Amino acid sequence: MDESPTQLSNVVSFEIPAYMDVDEFCSRIRPRWPGSQVREPGIWNVSARFRKTRNDLALLLRTVEAYVGEAELQAIRYQLDGRFYILEAEALDRVAAL
Questions:
Q1: Strands (DSSP E) along 1-98, which ranges?
Q2: For the segment 63-76, what is each residue's pLDDT rounded down to a tens digit?
Q3: CA–CA separation, 35 vs 39, rounded Å?
């Protein structure tokens, strides 16, 4: 079986619904995590470059998770290393309950 190696990246892309305030989202993650934002049909694709340190990706994802909960979104999709994931707001509620 011929498997291609996994492409590791230090960039994560978030899909923010077009009706949301993308400037508010970006104000949460910039300037700590530089990147770009591109308007696509129905969504904003917002990228963020994280440092290859021990906790930086985790801190970025927790920051975005908090935004998702505060913005009253149920979930958003993000892409990392060529794979798509779902980040749910209710995960924040479970952490807060602990």
A1: 11-17, 37-40, 43-49, 75-80, 83-88
A2: 999 999 999 999 99
A3: 14
